[in-house]
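Lab notebook: predicted structure, single chain.

Context: the supervisor wants predicted structures on file for every construct in the current expression panel, including those that have not yet been purified. This is the next one on the list. No modifications to the sequence; it matches the entry in the shared construct table.
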Amino acid sequence: RDREEYNFLIDGWVSKDMPSDFTEYFDLRESASRNTGYNGQRVWRFIHTNLCFQKRLQQEEMGWKRDFNRLVSGMHAVVDCEIIEDIGLSEEGRCEYRRRLRDEPGSILNLYYAYMLTLSAIREVSKGPSFESCAYLGDASIPPLMRALTSDDLLASDSVQSAAASLRAHASSPDFAVWKLRLRTRHLKLIMGCVECNVCKVHGTVLVIGLASTLQVLLGDDGSRDATQPAEERPDPLKLDRVSLGSLVATAAKLSRACATVERFREFDGEDLSQAYFGAPRPHADPS
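Prediction complete. Output recorded below exactly as produced.
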């Protein structure tokens, strides 16, 4: 528990639980994500039908709405990958892979899309104050790992950077409303409290904070990194607290493992792996 982190912006990208003697804490290494048997269909149905954008999605200027929906879909795909990875390369696993991912429109593409955005955000954060100032609760072994992660060539690859450029281009639309994205990421965090499985809840919360931090880093608090404001009045989007920074890296690690899981099941299912998903980086850089 970090007693110095009691604050968050009331209209920021995510609202976090404050440190408390009555809060349950989990070690993600000991409480690993797995197939717990919990049925979260009602929660996901609510998220996709009530939090994701539904109106005017086909209009060209609404690309920012589609981007948000794709991130949520990518988050859902991570959970599906963690489930089928635990089931294993079996007939049951094959059936679940097909049902949850292969035959679900856009699921795998959106998984890769979310992965590329988080990698781009990590590269951006490495230029900001959070990267060097974070004490990582006194664990001296973490900073060298973080520097190794941010120096990986994959983060600067064209496909990764083009995904971030596309997100920012869509955010330049006159119809873009950044507050609608921030409102949804905050509510997405609250909805994780409705999950009735503690392991699922904590891993879902990490994913939400990680994706919200990705959007903050890439878009800024006003959605455009507005350089017309005086520097002292502009919140620094690259300034992440320990929880947000940790969640961002953990989310990228989850996405990386999920992409690797998809590749294994594609091969197991007899798919032609030479037909790679367009724009998807190969899942070889695991930030875990």
